[in-house]
Amino acid sequence: MVDEAEKIEGVARSFSPRALLRPLLDLVYPPCCAACGVRTAGHHALCGACWSRMRFIERPYCDILGLPFAHDPGEGMVSALAIAEPPIFDRLRAVALHEGPARNLVHGLKYRDRTDLAPMMAAWMARAGGEHLALCDAIIPVPLHWTRLLKRRFNQSAELGRHLARLSGRPFLTRTLTRRKRTGRQVGLTAKGREENVRAAFRVRKGEEHQVFGKRLVLVDDVFTTGATVSSATRALKRAGAAEVTVLTFAMALTEPI
């Protein structure tokens, strides 16, 4: 009886408007690689060449900064950088190194309005976030200043965070953290310049402190470079009483091998 019901449901799905329109949509918008644009068998996928060039961050990596190790130093090991310069956030996790196809995906979402890439990127981020995402109390995106949001029309971090919340079932807080200072672009600045640019740039919105106090939070951004932006945002969350902040990004810029 159950098998018959499943068969009927499958037939119904095959005759749904979406399924019937799929061949026409594929003709108008043929499936292509999300990173390079060559034709592929399906939508929201990478071609074989781009997949082979994606440098996913897998264990072994630093438990704090998520930096990949060239060899396995043992469970629970942290990098020299994490020891010398402990971050204000509790840990960082990222999907891939910010190069090749991963860089193309970040730039497509951020600068070419490719919001259709966000679900695929968020799915990889959910895997990278692991138990820290599954056990968090809420997900918070790194906010844009309202003037930049007005110009860009969307916040790429919020797009990723929205899909992460859907995948994980965790609350998504879009209004809790705000950017009160209009900062210049981070691209091209030195590490010190980036830090100065975003100093005191964020605050927890008045009346939203209860969403942060004593909570384990996941702070979402598209790419981690020097860490200046997420550190400034984390500082605002910690001042408001956050118990733990995990930074989760799609890509990580690595200046030198670990």
Structural notes for this entry:
By secondary structure, the chain is α/β, with parallel strands linked by helices. It is 40% helix and 14% strand. The protein has 10 helices and 6 strands; from the N terminus they run ααααβααβααβαββαβ. A 4-stranded parallel sheet has the order 1-6-5-2. The protein has a two-stranded antiparallel sheet with strand order 3-4. The N and C termini lie far apart (58 Å).
For this entry, give a set of tags.
disordered N terminus, four-stranded parallel sheet, 40% helix, two-stranded antiparallel ribbon, alpha/beta
The helicity comes to: 40-55%
Measured on Cα atoms, how large is the radius of gyration? 20 Å
Unreliable runs, pLDDT <50, ≥5 residues? 1-21
The end-to-end distance, rounded to whole angstroms, is 58 Å
Cα shape: globular
On the 0 to 100 scale, the average pLDDT is 86
Instruction: Tell me the strand order in the biggest sheet.
Output: 1-6-5-2
Number of strands: 6
SSE string, helices as H and strands as E: HHHHEHHEHHEHEEHE
Number of helices: 10
Largest sheet: 4 strands, parallel
The secondary structure category is alpha/beta
Estimated share of beta-strand residues: 5-15%
